[in-house]
Amino acid sequence: MTKKRWVIIGIIGTLVLLLVLGFVIINPSNAYDGAIAGINLANVSDGVHTGTFEDGRFTNTLNVHVENGVIIRIEIINDVVASFITNASEETFARVIAAQDTRIDVVSGSTITTNAYLRAIENALKN
């Protein structure tokens, strides 16, 4: 084989490898599966509740602050999401606080990330 053919085979092989790795890295997440259950704050005690959602790169841990039966603040303790999504957490938390529920519209372009946050919030407030 000529050197030119080896270069072409190498390029094609590299592209195939990158494509396979892309599917592995950007795989569908369990955060996307199923409906968000929602929360019942009537059964949640005041204080700081910690919740975690674990699913690969969408793993996060949040503190949910409840005062007088109302969510007043949500803070990130550990977050492993795509760094280019800068406003998904702020928008998600603002919507949850406004609605006092996790059944909200997801942040456009950040569906899986939003759902991962919502599941962590639900895990924090489970009875």
Quick overview of this protein structure:
With 127 residues, this protein is of the alpha+beta class.
Highlighted features:
three-stranded antiparallel beta sheet; Sufe protein. Chain: A; alpha+beta; 3 strands
How would you describe this structure to a colleague?
Helix content is 39%, strand content 20%. The chain is of the alpha+beta class and 127 residues long. The protein has one domain (30-125): Sufe protein. Chain: A (Alpha-Beta Complex), CATH 3.90.1010. Strands 1-2-3 form a three-stranded antiparallel beta sheet. Strand 2 and strand 3 (70-79) form a beta hairpin. Helix 2 (88-99) packs across helix 3. The protein starts with a helix and ends with a helix. The mean pLDDT is 85.
